[in-house]
Amino acid sequence: MEQQDKIILIGAGNVAHHLAGALLKAGENLCQIYSRTLDTARQLGMKTGISYTAELNEIYPDGDIYIFCVSDDVLPSIVKTIRVSENALLLHTSGSQPMDVFKSYSKYYGVIYPIQTFSKKRELDFREIPLCVEGNTVSVKERIKELAERLSDKIYEINSAQRKGLHLAAVFANNFPNYLYQVAGKLLENKGLSFAMLRPLIFETAHKVMLLNPEEAQTGPAKRGDESIMNMHKSMLKGDKDLLKIYTILSEGIKEMQNKEETGEQKLSQDIIDMPTLW
Amino acid sequence: MEQQDKIILIGAGNVAHHLAGALLKAGENLCQIYSRTLDTARQLGMKTGISYTAELNEIYPDGDIYIFCVSDDVLPSIVKTIRVSENALLLHTSGSQPMDVFKSYSKYYGVIYPIQTFSKKRELDFREIPLCVEGNTVSVKERIKELAERLSDKIYEINSAQRKGLHLAAVFANNFPNYLYQVAGKLLENKGLSFAMLRPLIFETAHKVMLLNPEEAQTGPAKRGDESIMNMHKSMLKGDKDLLKIYTILSEGIKEMQNKEETGEQKLSQDIIDMPTLW
């Protein structure tokens, strides 16, 4: 039997937490977990039963694959500091860092970028998470792809420039909507109402675009061009300049998209699936 | 056996479409559907097997309950025009119109406002949709509540001012996130990538706040205060002033929420539920 690659995980945050679980579930040979913070390292180490350290010079130098799940600002300095064998494969999981961050440190390197939002508290099916892979040579990419395929069913090959754009898009699709949920919760609180009232709406808003395109799914006053409702909403937000600005600029955006659609400027994408009718 | 109320549905748009289905499923006595547009009236009439009309003067004057599912700008004029018996109960389903729009036209009136986004193409379980009820007297409210309870399991009693705030919050929780999905899709298209890549992320973003609060669910560069990533994103958006503005103001909003939380200013709501751990 072929010997399994020794995998070292650098980082013990949200991504590392989920990736460690996925690696173990896939039967990979995860050997060690490093985190700058001993507590965090210990937490994930204890949970997985994998040995852990908070000392850079204790990281095993004979690993076959090092996966860096650390924040973008510390990645370069950690890569520079740790000692690895010259044949080690170096990977990171960042949406924004170019693959070439590893260039001076190994012959074999690449990226596995998961398009997902991770929190330690939240369980996820890793096989459903899209993984974007990139490698510095064709054969390295194949090797990374094989690893990725043991973890997930959704593998995309993209380059560093595409990944950067994807990461930006992910901010618009995840961080910003989540912030708007927070704003909505605040508006409800002001009226003595509970965030729970909006949960079915939020759920459906996301579910709708699992099959429809967002342009088809859009409803509401800006889409209908209902100026009197929009003016009423703006006057309700008079006391909060920032929210008023957000309301105005996003409503304008919706109106513009709508106009483009009506004039046929905005082409609809091809993956529209006709939904079954109601009864 | 008590005779069932004769229900007339005024409107045949997205809301009427779903409400008609829910009424029939609940065994209610839906008698007639009106729409200004004959095609739309016919469509819903044929689908439900209920008689339909596009003529205001053909609306049955002997209905017990008239439910107005029309856009806010035409509601007052339709209410003014149609003839109904003096004991009829008049209801609308609008998030923004005050209940008193009916005041001069009946002794019995109120509101059933569904907190949901409706599209004809999209099937929904109406029993899961929160319905906000309001009535001009206690007994009228009870009567509306009983009807609402035959349609849904989630009934809230709120007043017109609360409903207005709720509707504004719904715009932030639904229309705006959906618009941001559209923007994300556009950003991907620019890189030759497909919107489908973001679907699991969008799905998880919504699912996360079904149990967590949005402040707990937040991730990303603004939350981490990662200025170098944010600056990179802003430079990527240089060519599109509107998107740059949206990126900047929403990132600022996230940073502010984060600061408030760290200084303890922002109190966390009580309905945090601890999620099961990963393994």
Account of the protein in words:
- The structure is a homodimer of 279-residue chains.
- Chain A is an alpha/beta fold and 279 residues long.
- Helix content of chain A is 46%, strand content 13%.
- An eight-stranded mixed beta sheet of chain A has the order 3-2-1-4-5-6-7-8, covered by helices on one side.
- In chain A, helix 4 (138-151) links the parallel strand 7 (131-135) and strand 8.
- Mean pLDDT of chain A is 92; it is low at 266-279.
- Chains A and B meet through helix 1, helix 5, helix 6, helix 7 and helix 8 of A and helix 1, helix 5, helix 6, helix 7 and helix 8 of B.
- Chains A, B: Residues 129-252 form the DUF2520 domain.
- Chains A, B: This is DUF2520 domain-containing protein.
Strand order within the widest sheet of chain A?
Answer: 3-2-1-4-5-6-7-8
| Helix segment tally of chain A | 10
Count of discrete structural domains of chain A: 2
Stretches of chain A where pLDDT is under 50 for at least 5 consecutive residues are 266-279
The oligomerization state is homodimer
Just give the CATH class of the largest domain in chain A. Answer: Alpha Beta
Structural class of chain A: alpha/beta
Most extensive interface: pair and counts? A-B, 112 and 113 residues
Global geometry of chain A: elongated
In total, the number of strands of chain A is 8
CATH homology superfamily name of the largest domain in chain A: NAD(P)-binding Rossmann-like Domain
Query: Separation of termini of chain A?
Result: 56 Å
Average of the residue pLDDT scores of chain A: 92
Strand share of the residues of chain A?
A: 5-15%
The major β-sheet of chain A equals:
8 strands, mixed
